[in-house]
Amino acid sequence: MPDEPLPSAPSLPSGPGFGLTFLYYFCGTALVTTLLAVKTLDLGLDRGLPNQYGIVLGAVGGLLGALVNRSTTLTVPISSRKTFQRELEAALAEMGYTEDADASLDGILTYRRPFIRQLLSGRIYVLLSDQQAQISSRAVHMGSVKKRLEASGIKP
Questions:
Q1: 156/150 Cα distance (integer angstroms)
Q2: Helix axes 18-41, 49-69, angle to 10 degrees
Q3: Entry pTM
C-alpha cells in the first residue's frame, strides 16, 4: 500500500511583502509622474527631466505604499481560544470587519468590511491554535488591531 501524504497544518495566506509592494507603487507612481511631467512641462522623454521626476517621486511613492500596504503577521500568545476570539471579534467590529463564513479557508477565519470599504482595505486572516493566534493583513490595519487588543488586555 503506498504511503499517503500526511495532512498539512493550515497556514495563513501570505500577501505581498515589502519588496513587491514597493515595486508596485514605485512603477505606478513613476509612470504617472513621468507622463504628467511630459504633458505639463511640454518636454519630450528624450530630455531626461520627466524621467528624473518619475524616478524620484516613484521612490517616495513606493516607500510610502510599501510601509502602509505591505502584508504583515502578528502572533499573539493566547490562553483561551474562545475568550481571545470574542475579544478579537469585538476589536474587528469596531474597525468595521465581520467574519466572512463563505471565504473562510481550512481552519482560517476570514474577516472583511462591507463591499465598498473592502475595495481599499483588504481582508484580515486569523489562524487560531491552542497556544497562539496568528493574524495577517496590511500593516496599517495590523497597527489598529494591535492597539485594540492591547486596550482589551491582550498582550501581542
A1: 7
A2: 150
A3: 0.80
